[in-house]
Structure formats: C-alpha cells, structure tokens
C-alpha cells in the first residue's frame, strides 16, 4: 500500500526509539521521513537505525518535509514545538503531558483549531485493552454515576537514572509529570471528565534525596535533582464525586502498584486487573474478563488511531481539551506546595 502520511520525529530519545518510531514503522499508510534532534549526531544514528531518509538541521526544515510530526522532546519544549508545527499546517502527536501550564495548553488548542490540524496527546494508557473495555462498560451504564475514584501510580525505588527526568527546568516536575499523569488522565477519561470543584495537593522529595541511594533504575545526581518523587491529592468534582490520587517514583511499598478504581451508584470497576463489581438478586458479584477484542499493543493502536485521525477517518482518541484538563489539575496540585 502506498504511504499516505509522511511523518517526522522531533526529539529522538528513549520514548521515540522505544515506542513511537517502531510503532509508526508498522503502520502501512505511513512513511518514516525525517528526524530532528538538538544532538545531530544522535539524530543521524537513529535515522540510520530505522532507515529514515532525512536528518533535519532545524524544526522548521523538518516541518517542510512532513505531513505529521511526533514531539518527543523534554516537556518544556512541547508547547513551542507544537505551535510551530500546527502553524506550519502539520498534524501533531505530542508526548504527555500536553504542556507545563494550562495557559500553554490553551494556546496549543487554539492553534490546532485555527490550523484545522490534528493535535493529539500521547496518553497511551487509554489504548490499553483493559482501559478500552472499562470505558465500554462505563458507557453502557454498568456502574451508574461515579462517586469515589481512587488512582495509584506507584513505583518502588525507581527514579529514572537516565535522560532529564530529574531536571525541573526541562521537565516541569517529577513523578507527577512523568508517570502519575497517565493514570490521572485514564481515570478522568473513564469518568467522562467531570467538572472539577477543588484540588488539594502535596508533593514530596525526601526519599530520593537520600545520598545512600537504593534505586532500581540506575543512578542520578542527588545534588542536582530538583523534582518531586511522590505526590498526593484530594480532588472534588461539581457532581459531589471525589478522587484520591497518589503517584510516586520512589515509594517505600512492597511492590509497584497501578490502580484505577471507580465506585459508582450501580456498581464499581477496577483496572489492572479489570473487574466489574455489582450487586443484585441477593448476590454480590465480581466479573472478570476472559477475552477482549481490543489490540494488546498500545503503541501500535495509538499510532494507527493518530494516522486515521490525520486522514479524516477517525476522531482523535485523546482530545486536546481533555489533555488540557489533566495539565490544569497537575498545575493545581503543584500549587498546593506554594
């Protein structure tokens, strides 16, 4: 099949080479066309590795070569790179989080509307088979109205020892920006993004500042690390529903834990693993899933859906206004420390 979409990559770090480039290489209607990175040598290596014909020397040059772009830069540059691409008439898949502030997100959203181009944010947990099945059950009314939501995105002593994850200037934050945002987005999406009434948050950095490091994911510079390793929040919604949220890179817990739980008026749903919890006919029932029709490859599903959106065959699975709400909530959690 002849390629319909020429795609480029801005930033060729780990997320680009481990997730996005391999995924888009498997989409038949895509031609991997160009890469750009501030480290030109690194860009040339990646282009050779994935047989990508062009290494651009600037973002502007890359945007002249492609129909769509994947932004894989540090978080600080999401906003400016996305604006430049959208203003050039290029579709954008931007790594999460959307941007550092709600104001930046609004500018990106406005640019997308003005240009008519697709702007999608790479919250790939929404493409997890369990997440897609859970959304189907929620939309079918199986849990009724959400009452209490619990979200845990917790890792035991796994501060990333590579890249710029511990640099606030480049990333805007730590575990909340990097990891917690995924499950926060997922829970809000499942609950259909209810209007937020209040956010009370707190962040912590004590554990990762221990000079006697015990860390599974490599070493990092304690002296220069300036982001949080743990965050929690209590969120209330206009409907009266509430959310208990916690995320960490370095929690002192027995094992890593990912939880999304929604207790509703008619039932409850849990993810990882997926269960539907109901009552009726004098019974309490917990239903598990034996098989799902959804693709198990989240990265490929995300790439395919983005390209379908660019071709006008589908709506973006992660709309910019939704991703903006996630960033706004994160911003308010950080404000709890000020």
Automatic annotation (TrEMBL):
InterPro entries, A to Z: Gfo/Idh/MocA-like_OxRdtase_N, Gfo/Idh/MocA_Oxidoreductase, GFO_IDH_MocA-like_dom, NAD(P)-bd_dom_sf
SUPFAM superfamilies reported in the protein's UniProt record: Glyceraldehyde-3-phosphate dehydrogenase-like, C-terminal domain, NAD(P)-binding Rossmann-fold domains
Residues spanning the membrane: none
Domain called Gfo/Idh/MocA-like oxidoreductase N-terminal: residue spans: 5-123
Pfam families: GFO_IDH_MocA, GFO_IDH_MocA_C3
An example molecular function term from Gene Ontology annotations: nucleotide binding
UniProt domain GFO/IDH/MocA-like oxidoreductase: residue ranges: 133-269
Protein name: Predicted dehydrogenase
């Amino acid at each position: 099949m002849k390629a319909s979409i020429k795609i480029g990559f801005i930033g060729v770090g780990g997320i680009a080479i481990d997730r996005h480039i391999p995924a888009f290489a498997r989409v038949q209607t895509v031609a991997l066309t160009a890469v750009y990175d501030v480290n030109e040598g690194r860009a040339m290596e990646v282009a050779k590795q994935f047989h990508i014909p062009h290494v651009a020397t600037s973002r502007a040059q890359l945007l002249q070569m492609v129909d769509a772009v994947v932004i894989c830069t540090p978080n600080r540059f999401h906003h400016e790179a996305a604006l430049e691409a959208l203003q050039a008439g290029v579709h954008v898949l931007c790594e999460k989080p959307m941007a550092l502030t709600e104001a930046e997100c609004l500018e990106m959203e406005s640019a997308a509307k003005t240009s008519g181009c697709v702007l999608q944010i790479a919250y790939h947990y929404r493409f997890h088979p369990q997440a897609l099945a859970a959304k189907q059950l929620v939309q079918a009314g199986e849990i009724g109205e959400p009452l209490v939501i619990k979200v845990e995105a917790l890792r035991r002593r796994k501060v990333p020892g590579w890249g710029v994850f511990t640099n606030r200037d480049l990333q805007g934050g730590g575990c909340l920006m990097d990891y917690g945002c995924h499950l926060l987005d997922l829970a809000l999406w499942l609950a259909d993004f209810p209007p937020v009434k209040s956010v009370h948050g707190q962040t912590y950095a004590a554990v990762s500042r221990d000079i006697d490091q015990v860390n599974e994911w490599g070493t990092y510079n304690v002296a220069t690390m300036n982001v949080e390793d743990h965050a929690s929040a209590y969120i209330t919604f206009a409907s009266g529903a509430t959310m208990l949220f916690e995320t960490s890179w370095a929690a002192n817990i027995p094992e890593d834990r990912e939880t999304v739980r929604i207790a509703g008026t008619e039932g409850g749903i849990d993810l990882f693993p997926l269960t539907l919890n109901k009552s009726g006919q004098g019974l309490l029932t917990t239903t598990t899933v034996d098989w799902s029709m959804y693709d198990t490859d989240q990265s490929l599903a995300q790439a395919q859906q983005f390209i379908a959106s660019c071709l006008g065959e589908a709506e973006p699975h992660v709309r910019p206004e939704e991703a903006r709400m996630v960033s706004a909530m994160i911003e308010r959690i950080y404000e709890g420390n000020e």
